[in-house]
């Protein structure tokens, strides 16, 4: 009789353990389904849009479409052309502040420095969409919740602008010397 009681208790423990295991597996599967479902809905909401958490410099561009991002960059180009670019250089105790216009003095229709809005907008929209299926599911949520993804814009700089900048910076460069080797 004692052995029968031990056998019954042993069977009861096995049934209880298997029920707990089934409950644990069920909860895990529900959590996986909730994750995949929410990630899929999130990707559908931001289809053809920049995911939240994507910045260019200090400008948050999350939620913008490709066209809106291009317009933003073009507006930034227009602002640079009107206001010029501010530079400040410090060497020991000497500070030099100057402005350079990104528009050519010879031809006002030529921008020597500009943001390539087409490629930059495409790069911004592709953030979080560049991996395989599983990467594309978790990466947008990770960007939104845990990190701020800073993307650099594609900037086109002409040689004339670089030479003008070199002229202004000549006071701050070290003159070449003989190393006496």
Tell me what the structure shows.
- This protein is an alpha+beta fold.
- Helices cover 54% and strands 15% of the residues.
- The chain contains five helices and seven strands; from the N terminus they run αββαβββααββα.
- It has a three-stranded mixed sheet with strand order 2-1-6, with no helix packed on it. Strands 3-4 form a two-stranded antiparallel sheet.
- A hairpin with a 2-residue loop joins strand 1 and strand 2 (59-60).
- The longest helix is centred in the N-terminal third of the chain and has 44 residues, at 2-45.
- The termini are far apart.
How is the topology of this model organized?
Blueprint (H helix, E strand, L loop, with lengths): L1 H44 L8 E3 L2 E2 L5 H18 L1 E7 L2 E7 L12 E3 L1 H10 L6 H14 L2 E2 L4 E3 L1 H11 L12
Helix pairs in contact: 1-4, 2-3
Observed structural traits:
single chain; alpha+beta; 5 helices; elongated; 181 residues; two-stranded antiparallel sheet
Beta-sheet strand percentage?
A: 5-15%
Total number of strands: 7
How many H/I helices? Answer: 5
Helix/strand order, N-terminal first: HEEHEEEHHEEH
Query: End-to-end distance, in Å?
Result: 102 Å
Given helix and strand content, the structural type is alpha+beta
Q: Biggest sheet, in brief?
A: 3 strands, mixed
> What is the CA-based Rg, rounded?
30 Å
**Portion in helices:** 40-55%
* Low-confidence blocks of residues: none
What's the overall geometry? elongated
Q: Which strand order does the major sheet show?
A: 2-1-6
Average pLDDT? 79
